[in-house]
Model the fold of this input.
Amino acid sequence: MAEKKQKVGDIRKREILDAAKKVFLKKGFADTVMEDIITETSLSRGGVYYHYKNKVEILHDLMREGMAYRVKKMNEFLENYGGEPDQAAMAQMMVDKVLDESELMSVYVIYLQAQKSNEELRDLFPVLVKESLKMMGEDVKGANGECCSHLSDDFLLFFMNTMMLGCEILDGARECFRSHREVLVEMIRLLLDHCEKGGSR
Done:
């Protein structure tokens, strides 16, 4: 009975997350209210609020979904790489992340933009960094603390987020970056090397 109830709860949360993603992509975060999300589901108002108290909680779960998606992509890359996630592999995977074109990436950029005027979202950022590193350390094949330890570096995070914002907002940026992929790889390898030497923060 408990297992069946859990499955039903997971299905309903999935419906809420899919509805929220659709609304966020259409209206952005700031202009979305809970009623917009509720309307996109088959659930009652109480049914939605049973699972999520507010849209920040929903966005947090969408960010976790994005982390799982990224871990999956990293493992796919490593299967073909034929080695452990060393600096060269990390640089390639980070460029893959920058150039990614998906709804989850678009939602992440919406989150980055909404941070500026929302303290709750700003407070969420270090939580997301910690959760992301934990998931990578546990679920990426061959990962260890050393290969992931510099991914929380402020310089690196600001650089990556700036590139992702550019890909989503600036017309033609993603295509331009794709055509200069190897330059991006070298730039990120330099950044990783800089962070490993303790040159940031």
About this structure: The chain has a mean pLDDT of 92. The CA atoms of residues 78 and 147 lie 13 Å apart. The chain is about 80% helix and 0% strand.
